[in-house]
């Protein structure tokens, strides 16, 4: 069997950031204003603080501004929605990101749904999800978009293939399943109640692991030549697939780290710049 191909998300992210920086310059030249991505952080979850900082650094690299809005961990749903509504009305803000997860007292989906669709660059509004599912123009959830971008860039055939998605979260498992379906894959979604999971995974030409459990997918579950997409990121830089054992059986795989993660942030940048282009030019300039 041939050596598996590494689906290098880090290299693709670097290439896309350079292209996005050029597109941002054109928007600024046209409007005289720098597009803004507003990130809302509620509380002080250490992982969330790190993610917001990484997104701010990515904004600098592509030449747009990052506005960090930090709120107390005691913030109510109503208070958070008022902050979102103010950002919706701010003409400089092209994208709004509410960092997930929020404290337990907040109705997260109600807050996601308060984000204006034209600024929902993380694809978390249920209306964005519905439009994406129907193959209409909509911003997509960032990690699912990053997965599809990697598969497309590296020429992974999707149409007619059997894809198994392990995980059904509203911002990862469900939307990536819909995107694969729209790309003409035959899709099975697996979750904590799925019976005979190893047998189902063994059918897959494409495996997307998004379950949040380190090395959950075992090598013996993977058929020879499958494409492995590991969307997990657990402590110690460990993914949801036992890549050390499973990757040699695959035809291609995303490494952890350096696979889906870097592209998720770029997908957020990409959709923020698309939003800015729509405002500046009336169309996306890809």
From TrEMBL:
Q: Which InterPro entries match?
A: Aminoacid_DH-like_N_sf, NAD(P)-bd_dom_sf, THF_DH/CycHdrlase, THF_DH/CycHdrlase_cat_dom, THF_DH/CycHdrlase_CS, THF_DH/CycHdrlase_NAD-bd_dom
Q: What keywords sit in the KW lines?
A: Amino-acid biosynthesis, Histidine biosynthesis, Hydrolase, Methionine biosynthesis, Multifunctional enzyme, NADP, One-carbon metabolism, Oxidoreductase, Purine biosynthesis
GO CC annotations on file: cytosol
- According to its UniProt record, what is one Pfam family this protein matches? THF_DHG_CYH_C
What CDD domains would the database entry show?
A: NAD_bind_m-THF_DH_Cyclohyd
Which terms in the Gene Ontology molecular function aspect does this entry carry? methenyltetrahydrofolate cyclohydrolase activity; methylenetetrahydrofolate dehydrogenase (NADP+) activity
- Binding annotation for NADP(+): 167-169
Question: At the top level of its lineage, which domain of life is listed?
Answer: Bacteria
Which reactions fall under this protein's catalytic activity? (6R)-5,10-methenyltetrahydrofolate + H2O = (6R)-10-formyltetrahydrofolate + H(+); (6R)-5,10-methylene-5,6,7,8-tetrahydrofolate + NADP(+) = (6R)-5,10-methenyltetrahydrofolate + NADPH
Q: What range(s) does the Tetrahydrofolate dehydrogenase/cyclohydrolase catalytic domain occupy? A: 7-122
Instruction: Tell me the ranges covered by the Tetrahydrofolate dehydrogenase/cyclohydrolase NAD(P)-binding domain, including all copies.
Output: 141-279
Q: In which pathway does it act?
A: One-carbon metabolism; tetrahydrofolate interconversion
List the GO biological process terms: L-histidine biosynthetic process; methionine biosynthetic process; purine nucleotide biosynthetic process; tetrahydrofolate interconversion
Q: Where are the transmembrane segments?
A: none
Entry keyword Hydrolase: yes
Recorded E.C. number(s)? 1.5.1.5, 3.5.4.9
Biological role stated in the UniProt entry: Catalyzes the oxidation of 5,10-methylenetetrahydrofolate to 5,10-methenyltetrahydrofolate and then the hydrolysis of 5,10-methenyltetrahydrofolate to 10-formyltetrahydrofolate.
The entry's family comment says: Belongs to the tetrahydrofolate dehydrogenase/cyclohydrolase family.
Q: How does it assemble?
A: Homodimer.
Official protein name in the record? Bifunctional protein FolD
Organism annotation? Yeguia hominis
């Amino acid at each position: 069997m041939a050596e598996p191909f590494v689906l290098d998300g880090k290299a693709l992210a670097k290439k896309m950031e350079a292209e996005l920086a050029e597109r941002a310059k054109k928007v600024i030249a046209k409007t005289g204003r720098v597009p803004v991505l507003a990130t809302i952080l509620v509380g002080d979850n250490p992982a969330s603080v790190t993610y917001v900082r990484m997104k701010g650094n990515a904004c600098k690299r592509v030449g747009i501004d990052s506005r960090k809005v930090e709120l107390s961990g005691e913030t109510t749903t109503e208070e958070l929605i008022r902050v979102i509504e103010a950002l919706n009305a701010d003409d400089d803000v092209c994208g709004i990101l509410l960092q997930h997860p929020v404290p337990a007292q907040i109705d997260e989906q109600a807050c996601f749904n308060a984000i204006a669709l034209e600024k929902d660059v993380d694809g978390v509004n249920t209306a964005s999800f519905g439009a994406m599912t129907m193959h209409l123009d909509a911003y997509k959830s960032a990690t699912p978009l990053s997965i599809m971008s990697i598969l497309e860039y590296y020429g992974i055939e999707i149409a007619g293939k059997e894809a198994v998605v392990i995980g059904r979260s509203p911002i990862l498992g469900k939307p990536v399943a819909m995107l694969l379906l729209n790309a003409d894959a035959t899709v099975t979604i697996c979750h904590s109640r799925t019976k005979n999971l190893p047998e189902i995974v063994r059918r897959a030409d494409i495996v997307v692991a998004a379950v949040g459990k380190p090395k959950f997918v075992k090598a013996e579950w993977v058929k020879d030549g499958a494409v492995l997409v590991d969307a997990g990121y657990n402590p110690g830089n460990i993914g949801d697939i036992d890549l050390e054992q499973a990757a040699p059986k695959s035809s291609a795989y995303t490494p952890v780290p350096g696979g889906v993660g870097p592209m998720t942030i770029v997908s957020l940048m990409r959709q923020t710049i698309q939003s800015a282009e729509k405002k500046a030019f009336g169309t996306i300039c890809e």
